[in-house]
Amino acid sequence: MRALVWIVAILGVLWCGWWFVGERGAEKAVAMVMDQAAVRGLAVRHAGVEVAGFPNRFDVTLTEPRVEDVTHGVTWSAPFAQILTLSYAPWNLIAALPDDQTISLQGQEVALKSTRMQGSLFTRPLPSVPLKRLDLVAEGVSLRSDLGWSLGVGSANAALIAGEGTQAQLALRMLDLVPDQALTAALATTDLPGTVERLSLLADLTLRAPIALMDGAPQVEAVDLREALVTWGSVKVKGEGRLVADAQGQAEGTITFTVQGWREALTAAEAMGLVPARFQVALRSVAENLAVQSKVQGQLDLPLVARNGRMMLGPIPLGAAPLLR
User: Fold this and answer.
1) Which residue in 161, 192, 159 sits closest to 260, CA to CA?
2) Entry pTM
3) Nearest-angstrom CA–CA distance, 264 and 160
4) Helices marked H in 257-319 — which ranges?
5) Which CA distances in Å does 60 have to 118, 134, 245?
6) Which one of 22, 115, 129, 322 is at 20 to 30 Å from 152 when CA atoms are compared?
């Protein structure tokens, strides 16, 4: 019995020692992340770091964090940010953000509010820190700019899941998207509600290399879009297709969209001022001709084609194709 007591006591001392070693390691990790961010053009500052959670957790709290992207002129700041992890599995993290945050970009300041915003990061305990899964969730989100516009989202979820080798899967979902009041007021003259019920996306990714946190941002070689979905009253938009990276890293391929209730969608776009008056007649004529060619009556089929560095939605040029890597 006495031996058992000694064993428990020794293990307890060792565990406490591990926690204090881990506490110093957490502080060094914060400093290392700041140094790596600086190499990538991000200036990260804070008013202090505190580590709590003894003895089973490491709860790292940054006071008044501020991240500035000098190249693009974007700044994010908040009263605090927390990173939480279990002391026996520090390679799995939970990040929690406060209800009030601020984003400054392009000469304006945007107040970001939410009732919940957090992320979970699951990795493998290897030197390159390979990713297993990343989950992000936000609820009760509102954005309000000092230039007068606003945006609301009931809930949003995102997940990035590493597969075998260079495969990964990306899933996104947003529910109850409320546009700016000026846009929703314009919708009063249409048959569409002021809230977009659902936006979602599910895609399989082929990467140049497996995702690892120490290797920087992943480079995408191909995107297999299994489903993109927008549900907005009587309007339903679905998309699927495949894009690959060309020699310059720009997207190349075709995504086919099917639009049900396209007339209502076009009327709403006109009411919100998204279609200039001088183009409205021509655009309706083009849409009518495309709808006649559709396999399903009342449905509009629109191919989004990326080729030779350019993009077109049906007959409409959209400009340069996006970069995949």
Assistant:
1) 192
2) 0.84
3) 34
4) 262-271, 277-292
5) 14, 19, 39
6) 322
